Amino acid sequence: MDSNTIIIAFGANMTSTLGSPSDAIREAFKRLCVASFRPVAMSRFYRSAAYPAGSGPDFVNACGLFRASGSPTDILYLLHEIESGLGRVRHGRWMPRVIDIDLIDCGNIIHPSEVTLRHWRDLPFEEQQKATPEQLILPHPRLEDRGFVLIPMREIVPNWVHPLTGQTLEQLVEALPESQIAGLSPLVADDLRE
């Protein structure tokens, strides 16, 4: 992947003025395209249980591969602008949301440093609930724990390799605990790949 190739994860689990969670993801995709993100590939939409268990209604999730220019921080700023424009209010981690757009990878770089990525990646779950990074970390530090990202991501970048660990995407999927795969299922005829 070159520096202009990015992977974005989408999630939504609240009905809003946009319609269903799937409608919110479709609208986010349209707004990304208007903001000069060029789509390369889009996964199917998946239904997944809210994380952590019991924290809200089921999510609809998807991943997209895009080409975009700008620094990773500039790209993240645009993603937050689109989220805000779609009604996203940040009021806590792992809460129900109208839309969530996460920058998962940007040109397969490690940002801002290997030490920072390792720190956030290895943070115990209890600390994850309390602490939020003050800066962008790439690839997404919780990527390896999230079946709802890895499974859709496998559809669009099956040969992706984690720049820190050297693990292939298939190895990351195989290492997922059953709890991250149980209940994850594609939504039939409910996606952007038409």
Automatic annotation (TrEMBL):
A GO MF term: 2-amino-4-hydroxy-6-hydroxymethyldihydropteridine diphosphokinase activity
Keywords, comma-separated and alphabetical: ATP-binding, Folate biosynthesis, Kinase, Nucleotide-binding, Transferase
One matching Pfam family: HPPK
Classification via InterPro entries: Hppk (IPR000550), Hppk_sf (IPR035907)
EC number assigned by the record: 2.7.6.3
Pathway: Cofactor biosynthesis; tetrahydrofolate biosynthesis; 2-amino-4-hydroxy-6-hydroxymethyl-7,8-dihydropteridine diphosphate from 7,8-dihydroneopterin triphosphate: step 4/4
Domain 7,8-dihydro-6-hydroxymethylpterin-pyrophosphokinase: 7-158
Keyword NADP: no
Family, similarity comment: Belongs to the HPPK family.
Purpose: Catalyzes the transfer of pyrophosphate from adenosine triphosphate (ATP) to 6-hydroxymethyl-7,8-dihydropterin, an enzymatic step in folate biosynthesis pathway.
Protein name, per record: 2-amino-4-hydroxy-6-hydroxymethyldihydropteridine pyrophosphokinase
